[in-house]
Amino acid sequence: MTTAPPDPMIGRLIDGRYQVRSRIARGGMATVYLATDLRLERQVAIKIMHGHLADDVVFKERFVQEARSAARLAHPNVVNVFDQGQDSDMAYLVMEYLPGVTLRDLLKDYGKLTTEQTVDVMDAVLGGLAAAHKAGIVHRDLKPENVLLADDGRIKISDFGLARAVSANTATGQALLGTIAYLSPELLTRGMADARSDIYAAGIMMYEMLVGAQPYVGDQPMAIAFQHANDPMPTPSDANPGIPEQLDDLVLWATAKEPDERPSDAREMLERLRTAEIEIVSAKPSATLTQRTMVLPPDTFDADLDQAQTQVLEARRRTDPVKTIAPDDATSATTVYGSAVAAPGGPTPPQGPKDKLARKASSRRKRGFWIFALVLVVAVALGGSAWYFGAGPGSMTTIPDVAGQQPDAAVATLTALGLEATPADQTSVTVPAGTVIGTDPASGAGVKNGSAVSVLVSIGPANIAVPQLAGLASADATAALEAAGFTSGDVKQQFNGDVEAGVVIAALGTAGNALGPDTPDGTQYPEQQPIALVVSAGSLPDVVGQTADEAKATLSGVGLVGVDGSQDFNDDIPEGQVYEAIYTTDPVVPGDSVTLNVSRGPAPVAVPDVLGQTWDKAKQTLIDAGFSLDYNFGADLAPGLVRVTGTNPSPGTMVPKGSTLTVSFV
């Protein structure tokens, strides 16, 4: 059985800041990894574009667009984007890490969701989508795979890779993007999308959660696309009878074929969802039976609807007081969800969102005069707006890329475009001090004329505290300095008789200066900069008493080089053995040379002339000269009277110190 090759990204340090830990998911455009932000010490999800797409300008622009689109949103139901950049030829996007599952995973495990679960998920999805629509962003790829369900209960929308501004009318212009099962008819037929296209995808997704299957299926994508464009949308309760009528109506409203018959944006659909939730919760078990006839108090009617035969009652009917009347009152109306049912014999009220829009249009036609006046007001407003946003104070300017420039040049460039540019210091481990890192807002963003723009100028890496490294084992010290935000530099060995081998003696900066809490000038050091460790190689070996060859072998075993020195007489070391090892460097490090001086044995001395001296005096002289004595001195002889008659060797002969002399007497 073959195993997949290891992912080369695992363990890689991206842009000197993000340490890749493991792979989370892989898509058609990028792979998502779990990483650690070493600067802020937090887990993040880092999305890295596939290498074969790095040279594709369209894909790269779409990848950057995702960062810009998501970064414009600050909402609890939208995945936060922290950073975006380029490391060599690799484009990456840093996002909030949410441990959990996707909505697609949940549907695979459970098939379908309960009414309460569906409402909870849709409330969060529409909340995040409403924030996007308010910011002028259309998601264009809403589907269960892009809805994240965190372990702590948070629900967030992700993957704005296909998002575009509403003002651009979001024409595809190229191959159709998105997932075919959730694309709106207008996007499939005309290639155009706006906020209502996201509403259509939300409606399809809501149907899938309630029923456990997609409304349109087929063997080929074109067959599914044809159904979206032409087949009527099935009602969820036809497949799951337990679904409340309120959610049926909401799904059908969101998935209307004509965009004008859908909610205008996610905010409108969210409000209707919350209204439906209240109605579902407050409904009694008998709510599906024929209800009693009721009339509403006069203050619940709008003035514009006083002449209408039928009135549609929205949220007010749940809170306004009602009065029950006799069943035979032919002028009363029976209230049901989303409309009012006329009394028997009366006209049938309109049903569904399309009829609701038609009814509103009819009411507007009755007020034609006011519409004409409104058109004039709008025309004037549009003219004023055109001037304001085209040439006036509201006109937009795109911020240029000034990264890498000198601060003065960058400020001058932005000032010439009508922007108020101000330098602002920012630390950076990659951009040299005194060079522009970028701007805030970032380059490519559109801002109004006269807007304030910060020119971010690098002041180099930030100085951070150096941990205590001396006294730690080499591996532990390396881990400690990397955890503190530095990089591991050279490891230098040094012989030290007071520190155990393998233990750090000192930590050094790039200038050779000592670092650590106990060094006055080295308590802080720039982040991500290398720190060299000086590690003990143990004590120097003792080679005195060894032969020259033995001493050289011993020194070579610890990385030192023994060289021949002088050969001298030595009274303590036998001939041929090293009597002295001279180390010429301090401190001594592996590779240094050691001079070996070898003994020639004891130095020769002349035999003293003690002839004619008394034995006791001669004996002391010869012993003091370092000789051993061989003599036959009888017990009956007096040392102070007997005199020495000769020595062997004779006086004046040069012999090694310690030699034995034979002494003769009178």
TrEMBL record:
Keywords assigned? ATP-binding, Kinase, Membrane, Nucleotide-binding, Serine/threonine-protein kinase, Transferase, Transmembrane, Transmembrane helix
Q: Where is the Protein kinase domain?
A: 18-273
Q: What is its EC number?
A: 2.7.11.1
Single Gene Ontology MF annotation: kinase activity
Domain PASTA: start-end pairs: 392-459, 534-600, 601-666
| Transmembrane spans | 369-390
InterPro entries tied to this protein: Kinase-like_dom_sf, PASTA_dom, Prot_kinase_dom, Ser/Thr_kinase_AS
Q: Which PROSITE patterns match?
A: PASTA, PROTEIN_KINASE_DOM, PROTEIN_KINASE_ST
Q: Segment Disordered: which positions? A: 339-360
- Is Transferase one of the keywords? yes
Q: Which reaction does it catalyse?
A: L-threonyl-[protein] + ATP = O-phospho-L-threonyl-[protein] + ADP + H(+); L-seryl-[protein] + ATP = O-phospho-L-seryl-[protein] + ADP + H(+)
Q: Which Pfam families match?
A: PASTA, Pkinase
Q: What class of enzyme is it?
A: transferase
Q: What is this protein called?
A: non-specific serine/threonine protein kinase
What gene name is listed for this protein?
pknB
